[in-house]
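Practice problem 4.
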């Protein structure tokens, strides 16, 4: 209430208790306050209130929710509810506080600058020690890169992946253009086919070096992977004679088979130098962040009737790719190592 209204009501209260009539009080107030004096109806209303026993000159408290819901107090209440339960719904907040869902929405987005997003999938919730390990290895690899101009051309990287006879298109890949008002297209939910092939692929900055397929009913063991490393050495000698004299930097992940003693022995026997790769780090492996996703995107939506047809499609895809494609996948390591260092060892999204 303004100071002038407070003063007016105090004068009316005093004069009405003194016995003055509303008309007389109004005339006296006009003579004193002039244009700022209250109307006769206001004077008459308050005289009647004081005659009936009212003592307070303040406005009566209003029931119901406030006209303005985005007050500092309500904003703090909304923030407290969200911090208590990050998944709380807008309807629950509105019901708890007693304001509209529209007001809650505006408070969350405009006043608190918050938005509700889905959690993204990551390979593993890394511990502080694992993040530190990732950062240190990336820093060491970047240091080695800065001292070797042929660093990327010395890297040979590989991994295993399943390739399915039928890999259904994703929802995004199935999007279609339609006219406004037309019904959206429908798509039945489908699953991967049971038929699949395990492929082991190695490549360098110039192209594919080796592709091997596991026979049906077998698994990759230390002995199997040892033979793969020997075959890789022979492939480098045959396909990269100009690089054969350079010491190969072998980049593969830290799964148990890759780190078996017999595998480590044959790696040393072949003269390979293993490039450090932190555990639980597919985001730093060119096969996982580059080669295999592009291969599967190319094959997705196509049906293959046999393993041989699928193998032919895989090899045809790789054969048609230019050298620049493979170099780009290897060279992205520098960007990803830098990003990993900048985020203190957390996962690199892009």
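Answer key:
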């Amino acid at each position: 209430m303004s100071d002038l209204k407070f003063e007016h009501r105090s004068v009316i209260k005093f004069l009405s208790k003194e016995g003055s009539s509303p008309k007389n009080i109004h005339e006296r107030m006009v003579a004193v306050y002039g244009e700022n004096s209250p109307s006769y109806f206001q004077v008459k209303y308050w005289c009647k209130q004081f005659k009936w026993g009212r003592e307070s000159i303040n406005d009566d408290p209003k029931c119901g929710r406030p006209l303005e819901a985005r007050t500092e107090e309500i904003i703090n209440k909304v923030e407290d509810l969200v911090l208590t339960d990050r998944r709380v719904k807008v309807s629950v907040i509105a019901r708890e506080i007693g304001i509209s869902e529209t007001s809650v929405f505006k408070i969350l987005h405009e006043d608190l600058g918050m938005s509700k997003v889905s959690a993204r999938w990551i390979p593993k919730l890394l511990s502080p020690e694992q993040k530190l390990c990732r950062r240190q290895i990336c820093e060491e690899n970047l240091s080695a890169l800065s001292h070797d101009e042929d660093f990327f051309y010395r890297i040979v990287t590989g991994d295993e992946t399943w390739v399915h006879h039928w890999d259904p298109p994703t929802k995004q890949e199935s999007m279609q253009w339609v006219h406004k008002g037309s019904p959206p297209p429908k798509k039945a939910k489908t699953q991967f086919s049971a038929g699949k092939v395990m492929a082991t692929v190695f490549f360098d900055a110039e192209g594919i070096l080796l592709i091997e397929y596991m026979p049906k009913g077998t698994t990759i063991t230390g002995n199997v992977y040892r033979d793969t490393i020997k075959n890789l050495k022979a492939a480098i000698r045959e396909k990269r004679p100009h690089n054969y004299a350079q010491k190969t930097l072998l980049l593969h992940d830290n799964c148990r088979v890759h780190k078996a003693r017999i595998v480590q022995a044959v790696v040393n026997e072949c003269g390979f130098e293993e490039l450090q790769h932190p555990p639980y780090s597919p985001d730093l492996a060119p096969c996982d962040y580059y080669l295999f996703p592009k291969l599967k995107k190319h094959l997705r939506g196509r049906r293959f009737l046999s393993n041989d047809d699928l193998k032919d499609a895989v090899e045809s895809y790789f054969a048609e790719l230019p050298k620049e494609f493979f170099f780009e996948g290897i060279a992205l390591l520098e960007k990803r190592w830098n990003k990993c260092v900048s985020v203190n060892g957390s996962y690199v999204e892009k």
